[in-house]
What we know:
Layout: H1 9-20, H2 22-47, H3 52-60, H4 64-71, H5 82-110, H6 121-173, H7 184-216, H8 221-260
Helix pairs in contact: 1-8, 2-5, 2-8, 3-4, 4-7, 5-6, 6-7, 7-8
Amino acid sequence: MAFRFEGSAAQYFVKRLGAVDFVNSILLFGASLLLSALPFVILLSSIANHRIDTDLSRHIGLNNEGADIVSQLFRASPAHSSTALVTALVVATAGTMSVAGSLQVIYEQVFGQPHRGWRDVLRFLTWVGVLFGVLVAESVISGPVRAAGGPVAGGLVTYAGTAGFFLWTMHFLLAGRVPLRRLVHAALLTALLWIGLELFSAVYFSGSVISDSRLYGPIGVVFSLLTWFIAIGAVIVLGAVGGATWDQRKAARESANRIIRPRA
């Protein structure tokens, strides 16, 4: 049987990607993460008295050589000057709020909602605070979980935590305009793609970091980090669009079943 693109899930998926402007969205989102969220994570590590390169290398999946190269981008010990911390907090919060705004735009486009914009500034601040707490908690519990249960248990915890966080993020940034049940599939797919990105990163990014470092010196590592942040943007957009497509097709099937079901 020939595949019909018209009216198919594939058509809906491609249409949603076009509405989001997929390529430009992930490029801008990746750049925003590099320029805004990275200082936020550095600040987090400083407050937690914990070096950023350890967590960053673990998330990217770098081997020892790659992790050593990334560590050269950061100081051996964080500065705890109150003025520096306050300045970093202001800059990081403003930048991360911009990331929250970008996320809101993406989800509004995917789920067909009008843009609310900066009138949700308190909502963005709250999201930044929750993100801060999630990163602290993840940094604290990830080691013991993997030590106790191995990589499988660590992966399951990461999947559950990621799905829960993105489910809440979508519902919260959309201001409850989309029912929670319509967001479940998007959260599950986003978490699955996140795990896939971690597995891919463990294979690809060590070689990329080492190669870029040899070609361009320590600054070359920034190119690999930017690629990783763009990949995060792709995970978020594809997860949301895939979930919206899944939900739309499920609703269409249920509607068709109700129409053709004979009356008793």
